[in-house]
Design goal:
The complex is a heterodimer. Chain A is α/β, with parallel strands linked by helices. Chain A has helices at 26-41, 58-65, 81-94, 125-129, 146-153, 157-171, 185-190, 218-223, 255-268, 286-294, 303-308, 325-328, 336-348; strands at residues 7-14, 50-53, 71-73, 100-108, 193-196, 198-199, 208-217, 231-240, 277-280, 360-367, 372-379. Chain B has one domain (14-130). In chain B, the strands form two sheets. Chain B has a five-stranded antiparallel sheet with strand order 6-5-4-7-8. In chain B, strands 2-1-3 form a three-stranded antiparallel sheet. The longest helix of chain B has 8 residues, at 14-21. Classes of the chains: A alpha/beta, B mainly beta.
C-alpha cells in the first residue's frame, strides 16, 4: 500500500512576520500561522479534523483554535517533525482516520516568549555522557563530525564557507529573508569563530516565526474551492539514529538521512534527475553537504565541489535552499516547516526566488543533531 | 552555576561511574557477541542477551573528531575542545582532551590518547590526554 499521489497539501502559510515577533508567544505563533494557512486554503475551520504539532502540544493548538480533532499527532523529534507529521497525516487520511489535517509550527526562538526554558536533565544519556564536557548548544555539538569529514574527504574550510555564500545569493532575492547582503568566502572565514571549525556565518540564525500546512486527500482536494493548486505528496520517508551525536555510527554520513531519503525516493518512483528543486535543512553549513551525499544526489565526498561549481546556486542545475535557508532566511529552532513551505511555494510558482518550471521538489529535514530525519517528495502534477 | 555540570547516575549507569570513581574506565561486554557497547544498559543492544559483564578497559583511545568551543559553559575556560574519542575496544565516547593546548595544531585527528579522570562535582568523569604524556 502506498499513498503516492493520493494526498495533497492544500493550504500553506508562514506567520505574517518573521524574525523578531516579541508580541506573540510560541503558541500565538502556531495560531498566527494556522489562521494564515486556513485563509490560504479557503477552507472552513470546521472541516479540520486532525491536528499535528511539535514544540507546543497539539492539545494546546487544537484548543487555542477551537478545533475538536478525531486524530492527533504530537510527534516531536526536532526540526524535521513536520515532515513526519505530513507523512503520518497522509497515512491517517488514507486509512480514513481523518480527512483534513492541520500541521503547525511556531517558535519564539529569539524573543523567548512562552517558549519554555532549556535545562539539561543530568540523568538523561546526554546529561550523563555529553553535558559534563561543556557543550553550549547545537553549534558546539552538531558540527562535531566536520573535522572527521574534512580529513576523510578533503573538504576545505573555503568549500565549507561556500555553502553559506551560495545560500546568501538566494536570500538576496527574498525580501522576507533576515540576511540579504551578499557575502564572500573571506567574509565567512573572517566571521567570529563559534566552535572550530564553524564560524558565525556557517551557523543558522535564531529567529521567531512559524508555519502551518493543511493536508487532505487528492480526491477531496479536487472538490475544494482552493485559492492555490494542490501540491501532491509523491513519497515520504522518516528515520532516526541517535539521541547523542557522539554515538553516530559514522561521523561523515547520517544513517537517518540515508534511510529516510531512500524510503521517500523509492515510494515516489522518481529518480534524482527528476528533482527540479531541493530543500535540505541547513542548521549549519555542513548539512547541505551531508544531505546531497546521503540522499544520493552526488557521491561520497563530492558535494562540496558540486556546490562550489554553482550547481545549487541561482541558475544552477539543482536549486537548493532557495529561500536562503536556516543560514540566511530564518531559523526558529525547528526549521523543517520552512523548508516545506518553500517547496510548496516553488511548486505553486509563488516563491520570491522562483525557479522556472518546478514540477518536483524534495524537502529533507533533520531532527536533533543527526538524531532524526524526514523526507517529502512533492509535485504539482496530478497523479 | 559556576561549576562544571555533573552527571547524575541512574541504576543502569552506576557501575560505570563507580569505575570512574575508582580510576578505572569500564564498560559492559556481551558474552554472546563478544563485543563492548556504550552507553551502559543491562542487555546487549545487538542480540538483547542479558548475559553481559562489566570489564575494565585499556584506557587507550584515539582522537576521532572534535570542535573547539569558543563560548564557555559554566566552569569551563574557552576555548576548549569537545571531542569524540575512539576507544581501543570499539565504542566511542564524548570527552575533553587535557594536557595539550586546545588548538587545531596540537589536536591532531587519530592521535593516541590515554584515559584520565576529572571531577565534576562529586563525580569523576573520563577525560583523555595524549598517550605518553605525564598525567
Amino acid at each position: 500500500m502506498s499513498i503516492k499521489g493520493q494526498i495533497a497539501i492544500v493550504g500553506a502559510a508562514e506567520t505574517s512576520e518573521l524574525g523578531r515577533i516579541p508580541q506573540l508567544s510560541a503558541l500565538g505563533l502556531h495560531a498566527d500561522a494556522a489562521v494564515n494557512a486556513i485563509r490560504d486554503c479557503g477552507i472552513d475551520k470546521a472541516e479540520i479534523d486532525g491536528v499535528a504539532s511539535a514544540g507546543q502540544s497539539p492539545v494546546a493548538v487544537a484548543k487555542h483554535l477551537g478545533i475538536t480533532p478525531t486524530w492527533v499527532d504530537g510527534t516531536s523529534v526536532g526540526g524535521c517533525s513536520f515532515m513526519l507529521h505530513v507523512r503520518h497525516a497522509a497515512a491517517a487520511i488514507a486509512a480514513g482516520m481523518c480527512e483534513v489535517v492541520l500541521v503547525t509550527h511556531g517558535e519564539s526562538g529569539r524573543s523567548r516568549v512562552g517558549n519554555g526554558a532549556w535545562s539539561p536533565d543530568l540523568q538523561s544519556l546526554n546529561g550523563q555522557f555529553e553535558v559534563p564536557y561543556g557543550p553550549t548548544g547545537p553549534p558546539t555539538m552538531f558540527p562535531i563530525g566536520v573535522l572527521r569529514y574534512m580529513k576523510e574527504t578533503g573538504l576545505t574550510a573555503e568549500q565549507l564557507a561556500t555553502v553559506a555564500v551560495v545560500q546568501r545569493q538566494w536570500a538576496a532575492q527574498n525580501p522576507r529573508a533576515m540576511m540579504r547582503d551578499p557575502i564572500t568566502v573571506e567574509d565567512v572565514l573572517a566571521s567570529r569563530m563559534i566552535a572550530y571549525p564553524m564560524h558565525l556565518l556557517e551557523c543558522c540564525l535564531v529567529t521567531d516565526g512559524g508555519g502551518a500546512l493543511l493536508v487532505t486527500s487528492a480526491e477531496r482536494a479536487r472538490s475544494m474551492d482552493l485559492t492555490s493548486p494542490p501540491v501532491y505528496v509523491l513519497g515520504t520517508g522518516e528515520s532516526c539514529e541517535t539521541p547523542m551525536v557522539s554515538q553516530m555510527e559514522d561521523f561523515t554520513t547520517s544513517k537517518a538521512f540515508r534511510v529516510s531519503g531512500a524510503k521517500a525516493f523509492a515510494e515516489s518512483g522518481i529518480g534524482h534527475a527528476d528533482v527540479d528543486h531541493l530543500m535540505i535543512y541547513d542548521a549549519f553549513a555542513h548539512l547541505p553537504i551531508y544531505g546531497l551525499e546521503d540522499l544520493g544526489f552526488v557521491g561520497r565526498g563530492e558535494a562540496a565541489a558540486f556546490i562550489g561549481e554553482g550547481n545549487t546556486a541561482p541558475g544552477g542545475s539543482l536549486p537548493l535552499n532557495t529561500n536562503g535557508g536556516g543560514l540566511s532566511y530564518t531559523h526558529t529552532g525547528m526549521y523543517g516547516m520552512f523548508a516545506i513551505q518553500e517547496s510548496v511555494r516553488q511548486l505553486r510558482g509563488t516563491a520570491a526566488a522562483q525557479v522556472p518550471g518546478v514540477e518536483v521538489s524534495v524537502a529533507h529535514g533533520v531532527g536533533g543533531m543527526f538524531g532524526a530525519s524526514g523526507t517529502l517528495v512533492l509535485t504539482n502534477q496530478a497523479q | 552555576m559556576t561549576s562544571k555540570a555533573a552527571p547524575v547516575p541512574t541504576p543502569e549507569t552506576q557501575p560505570y561511574w563507580d569505575g570512574c570513581a575508582a580510576g578505572e574506565l569500564r564498560l559492559q561486554r556481551c558474552t554472546h557477541c563478544d563485543t563492548f557497547y556504550f552507553p551502559p544498559r543491562p542487555f546487549c543492544p545487538d542480540c538483547l542477551s542479558d548475559e553481559v559483564v562489566w570489564k575494565p578497559l585499556s584506557g587507550r583511545a584515539t582522537l576521532h573528531t572534535y570542535v573547539i568551543n569558543h563560548r564557555a559553559a559554566p566552569g569551563f575556560e574557552a576555548p576548549y575542545a569537545i571531542a569524540v574519542v575512539q576507544l581501543e575496544e570499539g565504542p566511542r565516547l564524548m570527552s575533553n582532551i587535557v594536557g595539550v593546548p586546545q588548538t587545531p595544531e596540537a589536536l591532531e585527528l587519530d592521535m593516541a590518547l590515554q584515559v584520565a579522570f576529572e571531577g565534576r562535582g562529586d563525580v569523576q568523569v573520563p577525560v583523555f590526554r595524549p598517550a605518553g604524556s605525564v598525567s
